Amino acid sequence: MVPANEVYVGIDMGGTSMRALVVNDQNEILAIEKVPTNVAQKPEGLIRDLAALAEDVVAAAGLPKSRLRAVSIGAPGAADPEHGVVYHAPNLGWDEVPLGAMLGKLLRVPVFVENDVNVGVVGEHALGAGQGAQELVGIFVGTGIGGGIISRGQLYLGSRGAAAEVGHIIVQVDGPVCGCGNHGCIEALASRTAMSETYARPFAPGTKAACSSSWKSAARTA
Q1: Tens digits of residue pLDDT in 36-67
Q2: What are phi and psi of 89, to 5 degrees?
Q3: At what angle do helices 192-200 and 208-221 cross, to 10 degrees?
Q4: Domain range for 92
Q5: Domain count along the chain
Q6: One domain for residues 116 and 173
Q7: SS3 content of the chain, % helix, strand, coil (to 5)
Q8: Minimal CA–CA distance to 118: which of 6, 194, 13, 191?
Q9: Residue 76 lies in a domain
Q10: Is 140 contained in some domain?
């Protein structure tokens, strides 16, 4: 293994769990850590959890914190990478949280903030299955549903930075309430969270037919 001089931490900040890894300049993964996401906390508490996770994953690699050069966060919602602000993250209950500044103050290193699926798609484009592709679309299904677009070899954000937020396309007008507040979003019907809730319902007396008709209605609308 190549000796690590300066290392970088990447964190996938999900609505259910937060996973961190530390890499060296050669993009070798030195350690991985995962903790639950305590969404009941205020943003300040969750950001302290992020700081602890970043420090823990560096320690798990057997390295001192002084080796940490920067941190990158993939946040589950609309983010402004220029200012490090998470504008709206329904699964966290966040609105206009200056994540980059707050976490950077705790860790004393630069913090880069971007939408989680945008970060994932850029990673696939740079190092994974999408290497060399000029046009690439990625859709990630988890606690929510998000998307990322590479167009002409570059991350495409659209006019408001949310070009690939496919999870909040409405496909059933009278559908279930989504975390964003709208009814019938794809995320409210087909995310891992939504599917878990749906498949739990048939075990309750009298709900099987209602569950089935809801899915058929959603399929016809889509």
Answers
A1: 999 999 999 999 999 999 999 999 999 999 99
A2: -130, 90
A3: 140
A4: 7-120
A5: 2
A6: no
A7: 35, 30, 35
A8: 13
A9: yes
A10: no
- Given 58, 86, 120, which residue is the final one in a domain? 120
| Structural domain includes residue 131 | no
- Cα separation values, 2 from 24, 26, 182, Å: 8, 8, 49
Q: Which among 7, 121, 2, 15 is positioned nearest to 54, based on CA atoms?
A: 7
- Give the integer Cα–Cα distance in Å for 92 and 14: 8
* The two three-digit tokens of residue 32, written as one number: 């991985």
Separation between Cα atoms, residue 129 and residue 107, nearest integer Å: 32
Compute and round to an integer the Cα radius of gyration of the chain. 19
Q: Give the length of the chain.
A: 222
Q: Across the strands, what pairs with 86?
A: 79, 97
Name the H helices within 22-62. Answer: 43-60
Is the distance from CB of 170 to CB of 160 less than 8 angstroms? no
| Reported pTM | 0.75
Q: Which among 81, 102, 120 is the end of a domain?
A: 120
d(Cα 106, Cα 25) in Å, to the nearest integer?
Answer: 23
Q: Which of 16-25, 78-87, 162-171 has the highest mean pLDDT?
A: 16-25
| Residue found under tokens 């019907």 | 189
